Each structure stands twice: as C-alpha cells, then as structure tokens.
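Notebook entry, cofactor series.
This is the third protein in the set we're modelling with a bound small molecule. For this one the ligand is magnesium ion. I'm keeping the input format identical across the series so the outputs can be compared line by line later. Sequence and SMILES below, as received.
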Amino acid sequence: MSEKINWFPGHMAKALRQVEEKLKLVDQIIEIRDARIPQSSGNPELADIIEEQEITLVLNKVDLAIAKITRLWLKHLREQHQNEYRSVITLNALKGQGKEQLLKELNLSYNSITVKREEKGLKPRPLRVMVTGIPNSGKSTLINLLADQGSAKTGSKPGVTRGQQWIKVGNNIELLDTPGLLWPDITDKEMGYRLAICGSINPEVVDKELLACRLLDYLRKLNPQAIEKRYQVEDVGEHSYDLLAKIGRRRGCLMSGGKVDRHRAAGILLQEFQQGTLGRLTLEFPPELLEKEDNR
Ligand SMILES: Nc1nc2c(ncn2[C@@H]2O[C@H](COP(=O)(O)OP(=O)(O)OP(=O)(O)O)[C@@H](O)[C@H]2O)c(=O)[nH]1
Ligand SMILES: [Mg+2]
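Returned structure with ligand:
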C-alpha cells in the first residue's frame, strides 16, 4: 500500500469550496463525528475555514461505540476543548437518542439571534445551521431526524449526498445538508484505516484484507466474544491474517482447490461491522485513558 491513502475524489474539493462559500450565510455549525473514531473523524481543514460561527459537536452512532469510552470522550471534549465548541452532544441519529438536547441547543441559538436582530431593529428569521462532517457520519440522517421527514437522501456508502440542500425544521430552524468532507492528504495510515473501517473512505481504494486484519486486531482486544459468537471460531488470539482465513472458511469463502478467499471474507467482515452486526466497538481512546494504560 502506498504511503498516503489516495481517496480524494474530485467532487470533494468542490464540496469544500461550497462549504466555504456558504459559511457567510450561516449562524452556527453542527459538526458530526463518528463516536467510534472521535479523533480521526474530525476534519482539520474545517477548523481552519470556520471564522466566527459557534460549533456544536455531535458524536453520532453512539449505539455502535462502547458506552463507557464514549462517556470518557464526552468528558475529555467538554473539559479540554471547551473553547472550541459551544457544546458537545452524543446522538443516535437513527433512533433519536440525543435529539431533544440538540433541539434545545438550536432553539436557544434561535432565541439568541432573534434578540440580537431585534436590538438592531431587524425582523426575526430562522436560525441557519450548516451540518458538516466526514462522509457517512450521519449528517443526512440527523437532518431527517430533526425535520421529521425523509427530506435528505441517506445511505450506507460514503458520498451519498452530492450537493447542498436547505431543509426546514419547524418555523425557526433551517439546516444545510452538505456532502461529506475529508482532507486531501491522509498521511497517518492508521487514521486512514480507521476511517475506512468505519465506512467513511470507499473500501475499494484501500486494501480490504489489510483493513479486515486491522479490524480483527481491535475486536480481539476489546470485544473478542463478538468474533467468537458471530463466526463460531475459537482461539481468537491467533494472528489476524489466520483468523480471517478461519472466518472465510466458516462463511464458505473458498476458491477452486479449497483455498480460502480472504478478500471475500474481508468484505463480509467489514460489511457486518459497518452494519453493527458485530456489536459495539470504539477504535480511538481519549488521551487520559491511554495515559492510564501506559502507567499500568
Ligand atoms: N447505527 C447507526 N447508524 C447510523 C446512525 N446515523 C446514521 N447511520 C447510518 O449511517 C449511514 C450513513 O448515514 P448518512 O446520513 O447517509 O450519512 P452522511 O453523513 O449524510 O453521508 P454522506 O452524504 O455520504 O456524506 C446510513 O446507513 C445511516 O443509516 C446512528 O446513529 N447509528
Ligand atoms: Mg448525506
């Protein structure tokens, strides 16, 4: 595999320019991250282009992350990054856990811009919020949750939303759906793997077998029962490459001559993980937790 993960499709460069253009029009930003990878799912380019708008950080897909670690992330982000974010919220955009808190935040912002406008003698207008984040993080799903209707197209692959779209939430809020953004050079390979494992980078541009092995490394450490139960394999302690072959054999991924088709097995494993069938997993940890582990 090359030094950099080369995944930057042309439409994303355009999407970044469009986000920059629309920034002037919005009052606030909702930045969505994936609760399984709170660090890698934060786009460093976003911080560079946002000027005065306040950011509400949403850790989405909490149903797929390990709850205890999410709580630590929440504490870390609220305490160590309080100057960067207006608030940090956890969400399950599919089921709606966290919706009320998010709506409360947005209504508070609406009240505050309305008061400011009144002071200037201006009529009230809806709060304009840009929803941004990496591909597949759940931006369109969040918008549908708040708007109570299927206005935004969603899908399990990255790059579903291709253009921007304004969607109304009641009379007071307007949300701008935007295409997922990544940054052009992902030089940290491990970060790239984690993004691809969680479905934010098209798996076709990364080595699937390698990704599956990385995923098995994480699962083995944090949720080994998930592999044992799902694929009926024992001794998950062995090397991930061999474990992948075992899983392939269990799933009937065989080539002529009876050799295991690891590529197909890797596809199954990644898909099942991304669908949540393998249960909860968090791939990144707040620094406080890592320090504690180091001192053990
Ligand atoms: N389990 C779970 N799945 C979610 C959640 N939020 C979104 N999804 C799923 O994640 C996938 C991506 O959701 P989208 O809303 O299309 O993501 P997006 O950020 O708009 O993606 P792009 O438009 O491609 O950038 C879909 O299959 C959603 O059903 C969540 O909180 N939990
Ligand atoms: Mg979308």
